[in-house]
Design brief:
Helix content is 59%, strand content 8%. The chain is α/β, with parallel strands linked by helices. A hairpin with a 2-residue loop joins strand 6 and strand 7 (166-169). The longest helix is centred in the first third of the chain and has 19 residues, at 2-20.
Length: 398
């Protein structure tokens, strides 16, 4: 009797395990998904992943045959499941999504979990997903790509997203400021040819990674077409006629470098690269320039740089607040109001912005509109605005 109970209990536990671990499979283009959440809009996820993959293909130009290059994606239901799965595979967990790479590409898989309650692509979207998706794409063709190419391209695709099944990419990269600081520092810069020859461990990753991004960005954005042609040639060199490039990192790095080094047009590569990155204005540079121009009374010139800064960091309150100040200084009070309201939405100091809104409304002789702004500024910061607000209120006609 006891043995029978033991067997029944074991069967119950085993059945419960399989119910808990029940998975679903779905194929979309190159991607083979394994997932558990039946409510997930897996078709949307698959379509979005294929949209991103089309960007990778455009960058690299590898063969797109979905039957040859199947990419496995495992979607766990939550972070705890993600951690347990990684511990069972690699003995540790990770803070972000991870592509588990094995020597046999058919065994490799991208492991994800939703970071929000959404049931579609937006539950996974972001730089971490883009990096790992790109690495999965690249490693499905090349076992050991050159370090600069791997890191530079995965950083390049960070700011891509899919909105309503349309791919969008912001031009500004968060790596620009760091890369520019390194590239223009005589002690920290790495010559172009040294970046191209770099292998794992050649330089500290914190320096090589942003410079690799910068080199890729330069190649893609420079007006010198020979650099784009070189990028195309790289993937011709790396794509194996046998279907999978199993050469070592050193061999692939050397093959790519030799293709670069034999082109005499690249003799000025360091100068070309420095000239390009010098001309790339960072958010901080544009903001500081705009503020300086405003303080010097050059309001229209200030507006030019501040608008560019606002385009690069759309959620930052400072450039839009200073755009409001610049518009106010030129007498365009309605435009000033618009920028102030946007600064408020972006998290600017509420008391300061309400005071600025009050001044713009007062200057436009919109006294009715100015009153609530004055009262709010006084309420939010009595020490700064109580006396000034009261004085301005008394000066306005009833």
């Amino acid at each position: 009797m006891h043995a029978r109970k033991t067997v029944l209990l074991a069967l119950f536990i085993l059945a419960a395990f399989f119910v808990h671990a029940e998975t679903l499979d779905y194929r979309c283009g190159n991607y083979q998904f394994t997932y558990e959440d039946r409510e997930m809009d897996i078709e949307s996820v698959g379509e979005s992943f294929m949209r991103l993959r089309s960007v990778f293909t455009e960058l690299c130009g590898f063969d797109i045959d979905p039957e040859v290059y199947v990419a496995k994606v495992r979607i766990l239901p939550d972070r705890d499941s993600f951690n347990r799965y990684l511990e069972s595979r690699i003995g540790e967990t990770r803070s972000q999504y991870v592509f588990l790479k094995y020597e046999k590409p058919e065994l490799s898989e991208l492991v994800l979990y939703p970071v929000s309650d959404e049931k579609d692509y937006t539950a996974f979207a972001g730089p971490s997903l883009n990096r790992q998706l790109f690495l999965q794409y690249l490693y499905s063709y090349v076992l050991e790509p050159p370090v600069w190419l791997r890191d530079g391209l995965q950083a390049w695709v960070e700011n891509i997203t899919v909105v309503n099944q349309t791919v969008q990419q912001t031009r500004y990269s968060p790596w620009l400021e760091t890369a520019k600081n390194y590239a223009l520092d005589p002690e920290k810069k790495i010559p172009v040819r040294s970046i191209l020859r770099a292998e794992t461990g050649s330089y500290e990753a914190a320096r090589l990674y942003p410079l690799s991004w910068a080199l890729v960005a330069f190649i893609l954005q420079t007006e010198r077409s020979e650099y784009q042609r070189f990028l195309h040639e790289i993937f011709v060199v790396l794509e194996s006629t046998e279907g999978y490039n199993r050469r070592t990192q050193a061999e692939n790095t050397r093959a790519v470098y030799e293709r670069f080094d034999r082109n005499r047009r690249f003799a000025s590569a360091d100068e070309d690269f420095v000239n390009w990155i010098t001309g790339q204005k960072t958010f901080t540079e544009l903001l500081n320039s705009g503020v300086t121009l405003y303080n010097n009374g050059r309001y229209r010139d200030a507006g030019r740089d501040l608008r560019r800064a606002a385009e690069l960091q759309q959620n930052d309150p400072l450039p839009v607040y200073y755009l409001g100040l610049s518009a106010y200084a030129t007498g365009d009070y309605e435009e000033a109001r618009m920028w102030y309201l946007r600064a408020l939405d972006n998290g600017a100091d509420a008391a300061t912005v309400h005071w600025a809104l009050a001044l713009a409304a007062h200057a436009a002789k919109d006294y009715t509109g100015a009153r609530p702004y004055l009262e709010k500024a006084r309420e939010l910061s009595p020490s700064r605005y109580a006396e000034k607000a009261e004085s301005l209120l008394r000066s306005m006609p009833e």
